[in-house]
Amino acid sequence: MKRIVLIGAGLSTKSLVPYLKDRLESHQWYLRVLDRDLKVAQHRLGEETSQCSAAAIDITDTTLLELELADTDVAISMVPAHMHMNVAKACLKLSIHLLTASYLSDEMKGLDQEVKAKNLVFLNECGLDPGIDHMSAMRLLDGIRENGGDIRLFESFTGGLLSPESEGDNPWRYKFTWNPRNVVLAGQGGAVKFIQEGKYKYIPPHMVFRRTELINVSGYGKFEGLANRDSLKYKEAYQLEDVGTLYRGTLRRPGFARAWDSFVKLGMTDDSYV
After folding, report:
1. What is the pLDDT of residues 123-176, one digit of tens each?
2. pTM for the model
3. How many CB atoms lie within 10 A of CB 272?
4. Which domains can be identified in the chain, with CATH numbers?
5. 3-state DSSP call for residue 62?
6. Which of 184, 227, 245, 261 could form a Cys-Cys staple with 153, CB 3.0–4.6 A?
């Protein structure tokens, strides 16, 4: 029986846990759900069975973490991005495959040779954005290439959005389905980078929400698109070294960026001082 350990049972695991539980019997898996708060882990897992259990853990306690990961085949780290390395180092030491939904950090990338030497898979960016957007992008790009097409421009937009019937009177037309802090971090991160018509563009963090474009999606109405992090690092991965435009964007309902820009101007996304 394969042992899967899920570390972190927050909002982003709401669909993941039922997905795994539904396949425990047919795939002969054992699922262990861990969170710093036992009640959160238990709530996310639901009823324990002979093939699944929940427990509390402090992943900064290396000894305890390694004990929990002993004899594990695959670890799924859904903790805050800055804590993935605690899990990654333990997985590397114990020869455990690792999955995360977060962007590939420089620290994680630095483990590449050691991971390969142990014949392990450390797969990052396998959520919605980044993740599903990569797969849909490559399916489109590969299809164009297979038909002899020449790619000169690439733009993609992804957003975790409410269905129209769920918006109600929500003035933001938005709800948190992940760590709310990550929305705040979008207003204080590094410069956004992309290529537009052959020119390299850099937008400093305090101006990210000021540059938007209106996008009409048939059947769903109007959205605003804003640049998402560093698009340049996907030139090689997407095999788009020669394109004149390379732009990854985020979708929100109109008005979101302007409202959030007000928070940025007021310094409400800056936690570097008290």
Report:
1. 999 999 999 999 999 999 999 999 999 999 999 999 988 888 888 899 999 988
2. 0.90
3. 6
4. 2-123 (3.40.50.720), 132-265 (3.30.360.10)
5. helix
6. 245
